[in-house]
TrEMBL record:
One of its GO terms (molecular function) is NADH dehydrogenase activity. The chain holds residues 219 to 924 of 941 of the full protein. It comes from the Bacteria. Keywords: 4Fe-4S, Iron, Iron-sulfur, Metal-binding, Oxidoreductase, Repeat. One of its GO terms (cellular component) is oxidoreductase complex. Its cofactor is [2Fe-2S] cluster. This is Formate dehydrogenase subunit alpha. It comes from Pseudazoarcus pumilus.
Amino acid sequence: DVALSVPDKQVESVCPFCGVGCQLTYNVKDNKIMYVEGRDGPANEKRLCVKGRYGFDYVHHPQRLTKPLIRREDAPKSGDFLMDPDNVMEIFREASWEEALEMAGGGLRKIRDEHGKKALAGFGSAKGSNEEAYLFQKLVRTGFGCNNVDHCTRLCHASSVVALLEGIGSGAVSNPVMDVAKAEVVILIGANPIVNHPVAASWIKNATKAGTKLIVMDPRRTDIARYAHRVLQFKPDMDVPLLNAMMNVIVTEGLVDKDFIASRTSGYEEIEKNVAEYTPEKMAPICGIDAETIRYVARLYATSKASMILWGMGISQHVHGTDNARCLIALSLMTGQIGKPGSGLHPLRGQNNVQGASDAGLIPMVYPDYQSVADAEIRSKFAKAWNVPEDSLDPNPGLTVVEIMHAIDRGEIRGMYVEGENPAMSDPDANHARHSLASLDLLVVQDIFLTETAYLADVILPASAFPEKDGTFTNTDRLVQMGRAAIDTPGEARQDLWIIQDIANKLGCGWDYKHVSEVFDEMRKTMPSIAGITWDRLEREHAVVYPCEKEGDPGDPVVFVDDFPTKTGRARFVPADIIPAAEQPDGEYPMVLITGRQLEHWHTGSMTRRASMLDALEPDPTAQIHPLDMAEMGIAPGDLVTIESRRGKVAMWARADEGTPRGAVFVAFAYYEAAINTLTNAALDPAAKIPEFKYCAVRVTPGGTE
Ligand code: SF4
């Protein structure tokens, strides 16, 4: 009886799921997690959502990988697979670590030496620690010898980061989520925090009860709308016309903060000129929000004492994702709504360490702390820190996630190392991604389960689950937090950090890290933002916010108070115009597909589908459709429906949802048996190379095959 069991150990750590970064305690007995409790962390104050509280038993699942596996020579390798975790031994054979590491690291080395450094690429993980992310990118840059390293930030907030770096010189948030309590007005756009950041949503709900006016803007009417002062359910894809119309109101009604614009920004004239044409009257029929409502929320946002904007993937996952974020930044700059408590910009980060993995350099254009690979001075600095010849570091930015798949098709990339990512499920046009991965000469996958990607691997390295390792993790608020090992890895599975080191050494790197804190200390030396954070302090305090440049600094939860971290100290306005989605509905494919997440499952489902409580709550894939559309199509709730795009076809159960806009269907991407990303469009935002997960053309028909 779990409730009556007395744990023999309590370990203080952090939730492995979303970017809120709730602190928790693992209660362990006989190397088994019995239950989880919330701790009094800065982001959660003892709260946990259903995933954090009940989603832990995936670590004990019988499908955990416990031995290295090597693909049998006669086993087929095809993108047209039907994965079956129970037939694993027909496809793979068990191997010793020695054999597997030689095949993995030695194989990657052979490809590098025979086909050149750019014939290799690596995907690191936002589910791993900062130290793992740092070592992984260092391995690609010094072991492979190229910058072909990326991770799931490319699929979530890459466009926000591009716009933020370009506009204000920093890719992270200006204020923590908790600051909503200090805001008079909060705009929440393209985000569904009750589902994706549940504890953060609880702070937003509390704030509204205390008087904060919440403006929810989203093509889907989600549960947070119940707490809103105004709900703007605009037409899918019409973010830029709506946001430009708000700026038009602010400019024409003289609501801009002239002093802030003059002293802290550049490029205002350009944006003023650009939004002149975007009058609320002209934009109303385009975005589906009446002119008076646009005026009302623009005035409210501009004139409040403190306004915050929080956003999610509804903003970022478009071919105009960078433009959407540029508009949000411009709104805050023209009104001076940044750099004060309760006043700022907060892109809600997705995975528990996507902020940290990005900071640590799992990005093809930048080294740790967003330092450009193209800058000779910076390259020289990293060459010294990493003890490698300066000319061995590639001066050219590497390829991004989707670009890497196309480079495989062209025969340019022949070997990949994938640590803890699942591109066979998470990439857009996933059938294409699966075929690309299957065609590699060598695919090395390091994971805790036989994921859809691992199914295509030549070598599989069994790794550690979150509660099995020590390391630091950075949440959406820029809090660097200590995660601690609570249980041992099963069987012969090993800590990710040491697997990465072993592969690096097979490539000739000559590393000899003995403790995770040594990696963190090296990170501090190359990353000014965390230079002042010591391992001892993290052990003591559990969490320290950056920027923290000198030891003893308290860290700054609210930044940009006096200036922006740009060369001039000023922020920059960047105007945006309407760019339509890459694929529009038509007679053949008349509906819009919107993909996203759901409360009970996490991303591609590799962990939460194996968490018994969560899978019992949401066991099957569903298509959320407006009830009026369902009636027109002759579909009842619970019926099987088939969704088809130009790229693929899946069947699932229909669920009536009045919040889904007419003419659209919403599907979560966590279900391998109805992998919705086999339908999505791989069209990319030109600046950030993020795919358009939030909009493509599909048709929905009754019936289908389970
Ligand atoms: Fe974990 Fe996020 Fe839920 Fe907190 S809100 S318990 S970090 S999934």
